[in-house]
Write a structure and sequence with these properties.
Layout: E1 3-10, E2 20-27, H1 34-44, H2 49-66
Antiparallel strand pairs: 1-2
Helix pairs in contact: 1-2
Length: 67
């Protein structure tokens, strides 16, 4: 579940210039390393660490190319 924190800021430009506006900002709960993700997938599936690592590296390359 994503948790949010309500933040406030004074608008510097636009039709609300000078007014205080409020917005939701996600609060980071945990940082996952590539090694942590590989370990968890290996524990929960029948894949080897090498298979999972290669799939994640390939996924990163595909996403990077798509951007």
């Amino acid at each position: 579940m994503i948790e949010f924190e309500v933040k406030s800021k004074t608008q510097p430009i636009g039709k609300r210039k000078g007014q205080t506006v409020y917005f939701a900002q996600p609060v980071s709960q945990q940082h996952l390393t590539n090694k942590m993700v590989v370990g968890r997938i290996v524990r929960e599936s029948s894949l080897s660490a090498g298979d999972v690592s290669n799939a994640l590296i390939s996924l990163g390359a595909i996403v990077r190319d798509a951007l």
